[in-house]
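Students often ask what a holo structure prediction actually looks like on paper. The answer is less mysterious than it sounds. You provide the chain, you provide the ligand, and the output is a string of discrete structure tokens encoding the 3D arrangement of the protein together with adenosine-5'-diphosphate.
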Amino acid sequence: MTDRRRPGSLRLLVHVLRHLQPYRAAFGVAVVQVIALAVLELCKPWPLKVVIDYALPRQSAPFPWLADWTPAQLLMLATVALVAIYGMGGALSVFNNFTTISIGQGMVNDLRSRLYQHLQRLSLSFHSRAAVGDLIYRVTADTFAIQTLAMNGIFPVLSAAVLLGGMFVVMLQLNTLLTAVALAVCPLLLLAILLLNRRITELAHEARERESAVYQLVQRGMSAIKVVQAFSKEEDEHRAFVAQSAASLRSSLNLYTLQTLFGAGTNLVLACGTAAVLWIGTQAVWRNTLTVGDMIVFVSYLGSLYAPINSIVQTYGTVQGAKAGLARVVEVLEEAETVPDGHAVLATPVRGEVRFERVAFSYSADRQTLHDIDLEALPGEVIAIVGPTGAGKSTLVSLIPRFYDPGRGRILIDGVDLRSLKLTSLRQHISMVLQPPMVFPITLAENIAYGRARSTRQEIEHAARLAQAHEFIVRLPAGYETIVGEHGATLSEGERQRLTIARALLRNTPILILDEPTSSVDTATEAAIMEAVEEVMRGRTTFVIAHRLSTVRRATQIVVLRDGTIVEHGTFDDLMRQQGGFFHQLYVRQFAPQEEREVRSRA
Ligand SMILES: Nc1ncnc2c1ncn2[C@@H]1O[C@H](COP(=O)(O)OP(=O)(O)O)[C@@H](O)[C@H]1O
Ligand SMILES: [Mg+2]
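The corresponding structure tokens follow.
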């Protein structure tokens, strides 16, 4: 994922705007609030000017609407106005904060749920490339970036624009030269931003990646904790963690240092601006071309003007960091679903005829995993797939529920190309027992009913009995209500397999896929399960990857797969006739001794 081009600013903006869309009313309110706040900010120095220029020297104000006021009345007006301006400003900023933060949180929530939903739908080929820890960081932490972008990116700019415009107009009325001096600072600040832009962006990106790498490390370490402990690698793992964590902190430190350096530099520029205004302003006062009150308005405006510019500069780094975060979210959101959903639905009742037509498949460009697979399974047939490890057996069956799409050729169910089908319609007719057997940290009953939520307890128990799981379940302290993974109720591999078999049997679908369903149970249990499964297989099209002779022998067709190619194909008797063939050799090496054992154990 990281090798792909990162989304540019424009595309990020589109995403921000799209997510802002539902909140446009609240956003409008926030904009009005920000403008009102800026206007109040403009009013702040005026009471002081009135006091200094008119009340203090006991002069009448030159404004027509204040001409009749006595100095005492002017003083009264100024003090009341001062309190009112600050009071209203305070109240307004509370409301404004509330509005902007609720918009931001709403946006984060929407973005998160969209991202999570998208992740659930992304194909297995995406997930086999992605690191879980990295994805967790993207969903939980990176999504906050959209709030930062919308709030710290838009409002300081808006506020600064209104303030800047208002001040420019007011200051021009007072003194042209001083206005020019005060505003000369703006281009300097802009230059600084442009110069440091790239470096801060790079650092912000790096900090995010490093932080996410720490997540990945923890996730990987925790999910393999057994191996770590078994090989006494705790120290090594810890060292790797400390190194990664330190690297992450180092790049954060670099980022913060650069940001504060930037802040300090801009403050210096601002101080120079204020000094220049004081220098030129005082001389103007001496020459009587400017009143003291006007100079106070200037200095005070500089303070208020610099605050939003300064905050843009300060949050500049934050916004860059947020852009990096949002880019990481957008990258996943724009990851196309490589298995695009179709529209057709299968006509019910589904017969379960499956046909592979010259199917080729590869996980990556450099190696072909399946070549020219032709296969036809009539409804109710049992297709056994045998072959050495890595031959492509699991890959072959994973094409049926469309975990992946073939690179060439096509697969049809009841004559319909899988690619044209709605995924949910396709998968609802297929039950699978996959490798490794996955169970969730929920109760055993819920685990069995995972693929068919509205099952009665009787149905669940019936499926569990067929899968030889009932016995061990009722021995557990809470029986079917035992929660997997809690209070020592961790299951053995064989028990997990039986649970997933029960889950598949409960679904009762016309197509059944069993990928080495009994590789981890003992021979006797295996025989019992397979007998039950064969019972269930009747009338269903079943693909079974198996090592057991009894299963293979009873199959309608046996497919021998080797290096992704079907090398032999036929009934048991067909294949046994090919003396020296792959299956015959396999029989001699593997099945015959097995059979002997079974015969002996039955005797
Ligand atoms: N998700 C994957 N990404 C890339 N290569 C894979 C993936 N899964 C399996 N392979 C490769 O494809 C080949 C066939 O694997 P698989 O179908 O699991 O074989 P089998 O089930 O017969 O043991 C192997 O070489 C394996 O390394
Ligand atoms: Mg396999």
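The first helix runs from residue 9 to 20.
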